[in-house]
Amino acid sequence: MDGPSKTKRAPACLGYHPGVRISASLGVGAIAAMILMPMTASCGSTPPTSPTASGGTHTALSTVMLESTGPNPREITIAVGESVSFMNHDAVPHTVAGGASQSQPACSEINAVGVLGPAEIRPTSPFLTPKACDYHVPRGQTVLFSGRIVVR
Q1: Torsions phi, psi of 75, nearest 5?
Q2: Is the domain of 34 the same as that of 55?
């Protein structure tokens, strides 16, 4: 005779109702669907945050992913006083530098990122004035990727 069915309450913030129970007798596909579908929803109304080097926080919306095809997003807008984090989603290290190219350095806040190994994340220094800042990811003497940070 089988023992009692094992059940566990699903977290309400994942889009489930508190009274709904997940049964261990469900198929793998049904359990996977229940786990993956709520991942597109947000628990709570504030964006996720993480600490910055200065002790403040920044939102996940202020993050540029360095992918094999380039930065994502290529342009990002932030408020004065905020930083932008860069995360390397590529298999090789990348350097992030301020300015449109190595011969046109600008926006020293970006240079705080430096070299990122695969899966590393690091924020810029805070941007203290409104401006548009180009950045680039060099490969040798050429620009591999480029993008822009708009500070308002």
Answers
A1: -130, 135
A2: no
- Residue 43, Cα to own-chain centre: how many angstroms? 17
Domain that holds residue 14: 7-40
57 with 21, same domain: the answer is no
Residues 85 and 135 occupy one common structural domain: yes
Each residue of 22-53: pLDDT tens digit? 444 444 444 444 443 443 333 333 344 444 44
- Would you say 146 and 86 are in contact if contact means Cβ atoms under 8 Å apart? no
Q: What CA–CA distance (Å, rounded) separates 86 from 44?
A: 25
Let me know: does 138 contact 102? Beta carbons within 8 Å: yes
pLDDT < 50: residue spans in the chain: 4-60
Query: How many whole angstroms separate alpha carbon 142 and alpha carbon 93?
Result: 16
